[in-house]
């Protein structure tokens, strides 16, 4: 009897103070940080909708400091199979405004089916969200007026949109190999996560590009 009471108490304690396990996920990484002493970055289970833990998602909780203030991010990764494409010359139809998914070997960036509803709850709880896309280039300009991003809500983000910021641009000379890192950040994060993009410069036979889409991170 005492053992049963002890087990029940342990279950209640874990529900009240989740540990980020699959059985006892927290609502977000920020909540997990509040509940744990000496919290550090790592992989944890969270359940933003607060329901049964069977739809919890596995995320990377990122702890950082900026201007002496601690910041905790809940980062959700795209499917590994669609998060990146190798650097090569990609064949594409001769049409304008061509999304990568319309290339002959192209595809959309996807996320686990259970992840997207949970992302919507993270949007409610968060003040900001961002996501990076890195374009590797071969004799091509990765970021110009032709570059665009397609959000999960089907919104098209143009290259001159204030939500886009180029963090690094080795490709602007369109000569040799390099990489361009672009981040999209928004307090109104309905556009995220990224599901497709329009490459900027790729038609010539000696040109190539690759890409890698990072996680969408909420804070």
UniProtKB/TrEMBL annotation:
It comes from the Eukaryota. Residues 1-219 form the Fibrillar collagen NC1 domain. Keywords: Collagen, Secreted. InterPro entries: Fib_collagen_C. SMART domains: COLFI (SM00038). GO terms for cellular component: collagen trimer; extracellular region. Transmembrane segments: none annotated. PROSITE patterns: NC1_FIB. Its main location: secreted. It is found in: Secreted. One of its GO terms (molecular function) is extracellular matrix structural constituent. The keyword Iron does not apply. This is Fibrillar collagen NC1 domain-containing protein.
């Amino acid at each position: 009897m005492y053992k049963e009471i002890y087990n029940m108490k342990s279950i209640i304690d874990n529900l009240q103070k989740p540990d980020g396990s699959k059985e006892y996920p927290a609502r977000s990484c920020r909540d997990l940080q509040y509940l744990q002493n000496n919290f550090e970055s790592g992989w944890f289970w969270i359940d933003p909708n607060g329901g049964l833990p069977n739809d919890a998602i596995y995320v990377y909780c990122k702890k950082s400091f900026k201007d002496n203030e601690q910041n905790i991010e809940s980062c959700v990764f795209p499917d590994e199979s669609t998060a990146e494409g190798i650097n090569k010359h990609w064949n594409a139809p001769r049409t304008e405004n061509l999304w990568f998914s319309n290339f002959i070997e192209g595809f959309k960036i996807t996320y686990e089916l259970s992840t997207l509803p949970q992302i919507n709850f993270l949007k409610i709880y968060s003040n900001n969200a961002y996501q990076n896309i890195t374009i590797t280039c071969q004799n091509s300009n990765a970021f110009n007026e032709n570059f665009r991003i397609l959000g999960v809500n089907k919104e098209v983000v143009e290259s001159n949109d204030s939500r886009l910021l180029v963090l690094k641009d080795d490709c602007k000379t369109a000569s040799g190999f390099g990489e361009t890192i672009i981040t999209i950040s928004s307090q109104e994060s309905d556009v995220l996560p990224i599901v497709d993009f329009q490459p900027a410069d790729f038609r010539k036979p000696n040109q190539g590009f690759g890409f890698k889409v990072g996680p969408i991170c909420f804070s």
